[in-house]
# Entry
Amino acid sequence: MKRLLYLLSLILIILSCRKEDVYELNEVHASSYNANKNKLKSSNQFISILYANLFQEALSANELFEISRCIQSIGDKEVAHEIVFSNFMNKNGVIIPSDSVMRDDLDAFIEETYKRFFVRDITEAEREFFISFFESHPYVSAEMVYMAFAMSNEYQYY
Amino acid sequence: MKRREFLKKTAIGGAALSVPFILPSGRLFASSGSRMANHVVFVAFAGGVRQQESVLQQYLDGSQDYPSAGNIMYNLLDGAAPTDKLVYGTNNENNENIPIPKLLSQTLQQQGTLFKEVNASTVGHYAGVNTLLTGNYMYSQGLRAKPLMPTIFEYLRRHTGEKATKCWFVGNGIGNSIPLLDYSEHDNYGSQYGANFLAPTITFGDDGEKHLKNAKIYHPDDELDPMYKMKYFLDNVWYSQGNALPTIGNTVEEKAEIKQFVKDMFVKKENGTIAFPPSASNNDGQTIGYACEVMKRFKPTLTVVYLSNVDGCHANFTSYLQSLHSADHAVGHLWDYIQNNIPEMSGNTSIVVAPEHGRNLESNNIKDANAFYGYDHSDSNARRIFNLMAGPGIDSNLTIGSETNGVGDIVNITPTIAEILGFKQEVINSGFVYNNNSFFDLI
# Structure
């Protein structure tokens, strides 16, 4: 009887040993929430980065110097930046999605815009806001979105 | 009532009375004084002006050992012009110098009060203009750094609740750290009470033509409104983790007004209708022209205009004399323009004119084309300036002090402007000015 019990226990132990599934986490590379931006861009940095974001090419040293002087000549920097931005938008060569391309895939557009201007991933709350904003404001253009990003405080920091 | 209860109620009542009121304008207290005028224009007649060529009217006699004396600032000061060896004014077809005709029928000296001999203890441009605007000598103030003490702009806006577009600082360029003087980094004041700075010779000069002129004016409702809504969302998200940006607090409407002003100035420039002085050949004259346009558009409570072309004196005494003469003409035009072209400010504006420091008694060794020696600013003669003011409530035809009897100090200017605009007591109460006296207290 003892032997029988021993054998039964052994069989039960062997049967209970099953290979478990192993769950692992895939590593995802995501920028931190504000991408650790804590330094204010200088006037020159702001202009050259803005130009590169809009035209996807570098601004010449001469133009950088001239635009920097223009910005210094106006005390309210928000006003100065708005004027410089809108002046850029009147030039040829700005690389900006058309409004139809933007409206075709709002999700991709806003994700790309966050990466382009803020160099970080969009959060779900931000995505929610913008998608709903675009849907409730059908005439908002890509240019207006770019302007809002370029004028935002986060864009002033790196 | 028991003594303890009485003391308790008195303390509560007193505390209630002393709690600041938040007025609709956002300011803490109503200003306590009454205004002598609703507008002040302060011309920082800067760049370093020698007493000898200004109030002392010595012309070449006091500088080049050439016996020709006289007044080359005849819009500001009383006195006959020199008659010999004229090197200032405009050139005629025979390449002769023709003095610019007098603009004002009455000099500012006749219309107001001249403090003939005033002390200015700092002899650097930035430190001097800093003192003009703060009423304080900041001996530890560094260059390329914002003022350590509150500026007159901040006193005005904080204590009277003025909007940003009612407060302008128009400079003749962006050198000498001048753009930094629109507000201080003082904890109790700062950017939210700052002035709108403008250096029009840059904004509307070659650089501006190239990079600002072609700016779009977005539609306020269809384009700017949604744009600002998105920006505010982005800023709100950012504020939860990031730093706030310094802003001088122009409202959306004020910003739109400034952008429209910039746009309009390019059109006016193209049409040749900017309110330049009749003879506006240099930066100072151009700056005064645009300052007139700023005043016509915004009717500021306080406008500070910074001139500095006379600083050429280091190496070119002839150009210094020309610039001094032109600056006098430009200031005369400014005053005339206010009286005749801006009805809202006419008869209701005071003007204050003062250099930030003087220049040396002895020349340096640099000769110009006329073999005139230049003058730097480092000795005790460079501490000598004048102060001229005119407008409602200011005594006319009054001269205070003399070469041997100095009255007044550069630090009296901030309290003077504050007194004209009715908030001198608040400035004094702040405890940040070097001297509580205005020039009115010294009469």
User: Anything to note?
Assistant: The two ends of chain B are 52 Å apart (CA to CA). Chain B is about 35% helix and 10% strand.
